[in-house]
Design brief:
The chain is of the alpha+beta class. The protein is built from 30 helices and 17 strands. A 5-stranded mixed beta sheet has the order 12-11-13-14-15, with helices on both faces. A 4-stranded antiparallel beta sheet has the order 1-2-3-4. About 11% of the residues have low confidence. It catalyses: ssDNA + n NTP = ssDNA/pppN(pN)n-1 hybrid + (n-1) diphosphate.
């Protein structure tokens, strides 16, 4: 049975030799390096105790340094399973999920017709290389010299010259016995309809393109005459050459990449050569088109995290964004990308000429992960000053993250996006003079006899209190943290712990919440930290465990107040809608009380600085409103103590006393 052209090559590309060989051997963990595709084991073909059997997974070849067995994945299956070539293909096709083609006489005839294409390509390589030294290649040599390409680089990359004649190559190869039809099929010659054939490459510098097996399959060619278009010309699609799957310099770069730990992706083959001149030999390039999903797969066979080097201008960024969109569904452990953006208007050759290898390595070392590119595209330059715009951003980010098929990676992306979003929308720190007590806390609470008041508060502020504020009657009266504060804040936190899905929805409000009770503020911060790593469908037990880990204690006992235990809307059995309403009501009440307290503090500070009749009335009115609104303090068992909150009464009394002493204005 004849297989269609390219079937076996595609099969080799889909199958990992290390995975197939791993069924027969035990890899030596001391010598093997999975990240680089470098595997060592005792040889399956002869008896030994040392690991002399080597698999180069990127190239798809094995070699034993003991018995000298060597080959590719098909050879390995044939030798270890004692089967013929076609049966080995069938078994590997099953592993790769490829359908074996039916017997096709047309395909068999086509396979026979392809015989000799590689030989014609290799003959063309030799011919073009010889032409570069001739008199007609003076302009080509001058161009290469201007680009800094010396004899060693020209030899290494097999650079040649296609003479400026219509049929120079055709005449040379047909004289050596190659059929004209083969030259046309290989892409070396063109034949328009019934017209006469012609050399495809004329008056151009040629760059052979080889596949991972080292076979010459195509050419890239650079124009050297002024006005000659196109500047870069590649071979057409042929039975040997599929542009969407091929990477320039893939073979040599694979070996260098295993030492470097990564592979660099540039825009073209001149960039690859420029980097090689600087000693950076692990670079590849697509061939005149954007990177395809097949090329991504080829890159990940070389290295788990290729670095894509692109121009830092608009075109380069657009290319990076297109690649991000292409790569998202394929990302996973050992399958990622990084992006190194070059200075605008410069290619790798410009960077190397200006700063040498150190300059390009500094840019590569500063490469950014995929999420940085995506986040920058969605956030940079955006005005997010309304809930609607922020909701639109959330929708776009969710849509991007949902395209990641790897569930574990998707969860990590969700957590990272949540952290970045929290930082983006975090309220700015306030720094206003004479505005103390912005974020109040109490001393750590310790149980004791039943009483209405907890420990006296320790107040923290973002701005130091002024002398006038410190001497105000409000500050002298003192402010306490009462049971109603603790009940309200505990209700919010307990509800969020019992319903992490609701906490995720209310995350922005929890970020703005400032707990008056110090230990509850610690729980709030731990809860927000756990939310940053929690997936959207986090279960309660896992979430509570994550909060406890960050606190180094179980928050449950501190939140287990009678009023909360008896509230069915905050219990784990409540519906998300019930819990959301209950938590939002407590958040609304907390915000309203905090706002009135802030007004009272501001009024008191103004009063201390220079009270008049209006300010005195303002202080008294604010204190009376606060006193009327606040729940009276509760005892430890949740019962009403009947006591009044004395700080507000003292403000009322102090303001009336001052009003009585202050002379009236005339």
């Amino acid at each position: 049975m004849q297989l269609p052209s390219g079937f076996v090559d595609e099969l080799r590309g889909r199958i990992s030799l290390a995975q197939i060989a791993g069924r027969r051997v035990t890899w030596d963990p001391r010598k093997s390096n999975a990240a680089r595709g470098d595997w060592w084991a005792p040889c399956p073909f002869h008896q030994e105790k040392t690991a002399s059997f080597h698999v180069d997974d990127a190239k798809g070849f094995y070699y034993c340094f003991g018995c000298h067995a060597k080959g590719d994945v098909l050879d390995f299956v044939r030798e270890t399973e004692n089967v013929g070539f076609m049966e080995a293909v069938e078994r590997l096709a099953g592993d790769a999920g490829m359908q074996m083609p039916a017997a096709d006489p047309v395909a068999a005839a086509r396979a026979a017709a392809n015989t000799g294409l590689v030989e014609a390509m290799e003959a063309a390589v030799r011919f073009y290389r010889a032409q570069l030294t001739g008199s007609r290649a003076a302009a080509a040599r001058a161009y290469l010299e201007r680009r800094g390409l010396g004899a060693e680089t020209i030899e290494s990359f097999e650079i040649g010259y296609a003479p400026d004649g219509r049929t120079v190559l055709i005449e040379h190869l047909t004289a050596k016995g190659f059929d004209l039809a083969k030259l046309v099929e290989a892409g070396l010659a063109g034949k328009p309809g019934q017209g006469s054939p012609y050399d495809r490459f004329r008056n151009r510098i040629t760059f052979p393109i080889r596949d991972a097996r080292g076979r010459a399959i195509a050419f890239g060619a650079r124009a050297i005459a002024p006005g000659q278009e196109p500047k870069y010309l590649n071979s057409p699609e042929t039975p040997l050459f599929d542009k969407s799957r091929t990477l320039y310099n893939a073979g040599p770069a694979g070996a260098a990449a295993r030492k470097a730990g990564t592979v660099i992706v540039t825009e073209g083959y001149m960039d690859v050569i420029a980097l090689a001149r600087a000693g950076v030999t692990h670079a590849v390039a697509p061939l005149g088109t954007a990177i395809t999903d097949r090329q991504l797969e080829a890159l990940w066979k070389i290295a788990p995290e290729p670095v894509v080097a692109l121009d830092g201008d608009t075109a380069g960024l657009n290319a990076a964004h297109r690649l991000v969109d292409l790569a998202l569904p394929h990302l996973g452990a050992g399958r990622s990308l990084r992006f190194a953006l070059l200075p605008a208007g410069q290619d790798p050759d410009d960077v190397v000429r200006a700063g040498g290898r150190a300059a390009i390595e500094a840019i590569l070392a500063d490469s950014k992960p995929v999420i940085d590119l995506l986040w920058g595209r969605e956030v940079d330059g955006q005005v997010l000053d309304s809930p609607e715009r922020r909701a639109a951003l959330d929708a776009r980010l969710r849509a991007h993250v949902s395209r990641i098929s790897d569930a574990t990676l998707r969860a990590h992306w969700e957590a990272e996006v949540r952290v970045r979003r929290a930082a983006l929308f975090a309220p700015p720190q306030k720094s206003r003079p004479e505005r103390a007590f912005e974020r109040p806390f109490e001393r750590p609470f310790s149980p004791g006899p039943k009483r209405s008041r907890r420990a006296l508060p320790v107040r923290e502020s973002f701005a130091p209190a002024t002398a006038s504020t410190r001497s105000s009657l409000l500050a002298q009266a003192g402010e306490g943290v009462f049971a109603d504060d603790r009940v309200r804040e505990s209700a919010i936190l307990a509800g969020c712990l019992n319903h992490p899905d609701v906490a995720i929805r209310l995350e922005s409000r929890l970020e703005r919440l400032a707990c008056r009770c110090r230990n509850l503020e610690e729980i709030r911060r731990a809860l927000l930290s756990a939310l940053a790593d929690a997936p959207d469908n986090a279960d309660r037990a896992t979430f509570v465990a994550a909060v406890s880990l960050r606190l180094s204690r179980d928050p449950g006992p501190e939140l287990s107040l009678g009023q909360i235990r008896s509230n069915p809307h905050l219990a784990p059995t409540a519906s998300p809608e019930q819990a959301a309403r209950a938590i939002e009501e407590e958040l609304d009440r907390h915000a309203a009380l905090a706002g009135r307290a802030a007004e009272l503090i501001e009024a008191a500070a103004d009063f201390a600085a220079g009270p008049d009749d209006g300010l005195t009335e303002r202080v008294r009115a604010a204190a009376e409103a606060e006193h009327a609104t606040y729940i009276r303090p509760l005892a430890d068992d949740g019962t009403d103590t009947g006591l009044e909150r004395p700080e507000f009464l003292s403000v009322i009394q102090a303001s009336e006393a001052l009003l009585a002493r202050k002379p009236r204005r005339r």
